[in-house]
Amino acid sequence: MVSETRPLSDDERRLLARLASPWRQRGEDALSMFSVFMFMFFVGFALVRLVFGPCDGPDPAWIATAAAALALGTGLCMHRKNGPLIAAECDLYARDVEQGVAVRTTYSVTDAIRVEEFEDEGSAYYLRLDDGRVLFLQGQYLYEYDADEDDDGRPVAARFPCARFTIERTAVSGLVLGLSDLGAPLARCGTRAPFTDEDYLANAVPPDGAVLTINFETLRGTDDAVSRRQPH
User: Fold this and answer.
1) Which pairing describes strands 155-156 and 101-115: parallel, antiparallel, or unpaired?
2) What is the pLDDT of residues 48-99, one digit of tens each?
3) CA atoms of 217 and 132, how far apart (whole Å)
4) Domain boundaries, the chain
């Protein structure tokens, strides 16, 4: 595992500046409140007309007022819950802009285990490095390298996991900027069951990019010890 730094490109700086902007959080709050308002207005309107008929019942303005109040309350609750987390994330991106560098790390891999996806958390892998440690990667950015089909419906082989690759991340937040220098795909890739809700609640899932000092063989699922398959 070898790391080096490089300056951020202008495009990367602009991206990070947008992510660091407090207006992003305000925009997300406004969009959430508008979505709740529209949902509650149309559901409320439909229910009132179903109960009272098309000509009777409360004026649509009253329904809109109730929907707006509910949307505002929901938005404030979401802001109180998620606001500090988003603010901390924005601060990390701002510090990335201040530092102005990306970290390039090249890994050499000897074995891999794919964790099946549960919802939309992205592809996940435990990768045994050539120094015996274990790299954990998880994220939707890995979708690009999974097996797929081209525009004509022909299968495209997976390009990851592979024996050698380079990941570029921002220095503070660890945001993935790119994955390159992909070597030959590993001949075989084991699999294990997806993480559960309990795993996430117990903080048993490593963060993306974590390098672990554990026994790689203990990570194999019960079925994986006797059955290994080609990479996806």
Assistant:
1) unpaired
2) 666 666 655 556 666 667 666 766 676 667 667 666 777 788 899 999 999 9
3) 11
4) 10-99, 101-219
Q: How far apart are CA 144 and CA 140, in angstroms?
A: 8
Specify whether the CB–CB gap between 127 and 204 falls below 8 A.
no
> DSSP string spanning 193-230?
PPPPHHHHHTT-SPPTT-EE-S-GGGGS-TTTTT--B-
Strands 101-115 and 190-192: parallel
Residue-wise pLDDT for 149-185, tens only, equals 667 778 778 889 999 999 999 999 999 999 988 888 8
Q: What would the DSSP string read from start to end of 17-59?
A: HHHH-HHHHHHHHHHHHHHHHHHHHHHHHHHHHHHH-SSSSS-
Number of other CB atoms surrounding residue 105 within 10 Å: 16
CA 31 to chain centre: 20
Show the 3-state SS of 65-85. Answer: HHHHHHHHHHHHHHHHHHHHH
CA 106 to each of CA 6, 127, 131: distance values in angstroms, whole numbers, following the listed order: 14, 13, 13
pLDDT given at position 223: 47
Tell me which residue has tokens 């560098």.
101
pTM (2 decimals)? 0.72
> In whole angstroms, what is the distance from residue 120 CA to residue 139 CA?
9
Structure tokens at 225: 């010890």
Q: 155 - beta bridge partners?
A: 149
- What percent of the chain shows pLDDT beyond 90? 41
